[in-house]
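Please decode residue identities from the backbone states below.
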């Protein structure tokens, strides 16, 4: 964007959203030292605050009020997102860029691949439009309250917006969690049989008391659900290259699958495990 023209001030909530991304408590947020250095570079007066998000929000909002323009915030974002800062950690750049693009969509802007603030195709007015314009699966998954274990196994794929691999990794994550819980070493449907089958007496992993007919039926239904998930979403991409698979997956399908995997993980949170030999 041209730096010589004055850009209209942004609302306090948009400035807050920008600060929440750039100064997020954990990864990929800027450290206090980075914020201090960047504020000095763009000549924005620092402020005292209880945490770095409030500090950055107040500093940028105060400067914007003095300037009666949002240029100071645009300069800060541009400096913070300079590609040279991320040569050793492109994932951090991608995460910050995606988060900022969500916030900036409310004022018709985005962060481009060069780390600069640029015009967006349109201005978002609702949260649904924010998620759609940012093109970011993780935004919608967070809004749905998806279980952290789902995100844990496909974070990088979500950042790179790869539906094919995000679904594959998220589904693999269920197998990995079952192996960690049970101490078994199988995979896919075979692992489900080992964990939830009753061939050797009580199942190794039980999602309920496994006493009444209704409980046993629910337990078996849950195991069948897992077999279906593995057969549908794990095995096809595991055995066929994406380019030749003809295996189409839409974003709504991916979101719904991740919600289903979230349900699976929540049931596993409360499951009872009896390891072999215990």
């Amino acid at each position: 964007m041209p730096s010589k023209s004055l850009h209209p001030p942004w609302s306090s909530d948009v400035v807050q959203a920008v600060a929440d991304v750039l100064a997020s408590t954990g990864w990929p947020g800027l450290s206090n030292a980075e914020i201090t250095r960047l504020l000095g570079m763009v000549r924005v007066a620092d402020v005292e605050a209880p945490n770095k998000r409030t500090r950055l929000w107040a500093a940028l909002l105060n400067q914007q009020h003095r300037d009666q323009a949002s240029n100071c915030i645009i300069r800060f974002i541009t400096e913070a997102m300079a590609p040279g800062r991320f040569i050793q950690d492109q994932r951090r750049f991608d995460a910050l860029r995606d988060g900022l693009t969500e916030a900036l969509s409310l004022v018709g802007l985005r962060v481009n691949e060069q780390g600069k603030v640029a015009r967006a195709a349109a201005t978002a007015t609702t949260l649904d439009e924010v998620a759609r314009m940012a093109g970011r699966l993780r935004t919608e998954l967070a809004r749905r309250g998806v279980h952290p274990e789902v995100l844990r196994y496909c974070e990088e794929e979500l950042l790179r917006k790869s539906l094919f691999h995000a679904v594959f990794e998220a589904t693999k994550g269920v197998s990995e969690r079952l192996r960690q819980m049970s101490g078994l070493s199988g995979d896919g449907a075979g692992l489900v049989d080992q964990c939830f089958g009753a061939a050797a007496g009580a199942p190794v992993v039980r999602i309920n008391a496994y006493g009444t007919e209704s409980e046993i039926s629910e337990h078996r239904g849950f195991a069948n659900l897992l077999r279906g998930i593995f057969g549908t979403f794990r095995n096809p991409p595991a055995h066929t290259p994406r380019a030749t698979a003809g295996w189409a997956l839409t974003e709504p399908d991916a979101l719904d699958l991740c919600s289903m995997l979230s349900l699976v993980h929540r049931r596993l949170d409360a499951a009872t495990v009896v390891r072999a030999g215990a």
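Observation: The longest helix spans residues 213-239.
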